[in-house]
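PROTOCOL LOG
Step 1. Enter all chains and additional molecules of the complex.
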Amino acid sequence: MNKNYFILFGLLIVLSGGLLFLPEKTNYVQQSPESLMWDIVQPTRYISTDQVAKLIIEKDPLFQLVDVRPDYDFEAFSLPNSFNIPIDSILTDEANDIFNIEDVNTIFLSDDDIKADQAWVIAKRMGYKSVYVMKGGLNCWIRTIIQPQKPSESAPITEFELYNFRKGASIYFTGAELSTNSDIKQEVSITRKKKETVAEGGC
Amino acid sequence: MGPLIPLGQISSGWDFIIALIIGIAFGFILEASGFSSSRNITGVFYGYNFVVLRFFFTAVIVAMIGLEYFDYMGWIDLNMIYILPTYLSPMIVGAIIMGVGFIIGGFCPGTSYTAIAIGKLDAIVFTLGLFLGIFIFSEIFPYIEDFYYSGNMGNITISEVLGISNKLFTFIFVIIAVIAFYVTWLIEKKVRKTINPYKFE
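Step 2. Run joint prediction.
Step 3. Record the structure below.
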């Protein structure tokens, strides 16, 4: 056998053996600090609880909710159809699979903004573009969607419309029934229609 | 950063152009390596010519090592490479049928076209048989459909089944390939004293 073959054999073995000594790769397509700063100051990265409620009710397939709280908190209370990826598992392959779904936007949520914001920054640094944060977290969700406060009498009509939406959403998410005031009994007055006289004669 | 088309670096409209260029290069290398000769191809089965084995082993290990380094350098994301799903039992049956066809006809589908390109009559007959086979398969497909889709193991790789890393598997595979190169060379050296050796022209 030609000695050149042995040189090639040696080269292949060295190259493939070298693979075993490579450190674990950490080569995510990371966002540059300038571009990350630009994204951080954009208010559009936040999605309000009202918008999230609407997305859930309308079953919008283009959004997915990722709850970054610990699993015991998630089991105690969670939003419908949300995934649980605790913040310390955000770099795992399973999390990667969820973020990688094509054309689907990810909304991070936690008890407040802090953990969700941290998850957002990590996801951005990992190169995911369509990621958002639910503004105010689940505390805000309880305040606005589950227990909405009635606006004052002098509030503009838009506030009342928002209140009505939140009230409806609250019923949707809690399964509560509409309260009807059964104490008020309205008297029903029946007025009989006068009998029309039958036409006589004619053609 | 690749893969280029899934990541949008190249528009998917280029699919066929790229496929055409790769196809031409593949056909050229097959022909240049002597694969338009059925004697070269069936030589593996009869034990006097192992050029097919060495050719494909070389291609596979160079691609494996290259992809691993590309992945490490961040030039390609191996997680985004499409992996064909494995249907174990239908694939075993398919491999046996293909292997028998290989020995009888002296070509595989790709090499038969390479041989047609240089005007070999046996390759023309082989491809007629190939289309006949495709026709028969299409006709009986409804009867074998259940078996065709049976034993789906998903998009798995050998390293996942063995529970080892891709890098370790690459290394083991290279060692196996190098041993195979040397052993087949020894066999050819021994056998070709009695069998008239095929010479590349």
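Step 4. Note key features.
Chain B has eight helices and no strands.
The two ends of chain B are 42 Å apart (CA to CA).
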